[in-house]
Amino acid sequence: MAIYALLFIDIFYDVLIPFATTLLVVTLLAFVFVCHYKQGQFLKAYQQRAAAKIELNADKLSDV
Q1: Cα 54–Cα 56–Cα 58 angle in degrees, nearest 5
Q2: Is the pTM of the predicted complex or chain greater than 0.85?
């Protein structure tokens, strides 16, 4: 019975821990990529809104 425990421990350390570590790293990288992409979209939308406000203000000033 002890051989099964040793076999399980061996499989656990040789297979499951590297697999879990790899999965964790890939998940974190995906999270960072998605956050970076979403932040880029947010900044682009913010710049477009700012440019629209500037145009609106310029139109108001030119009407005066």
Answers
A1: 70
A2: no
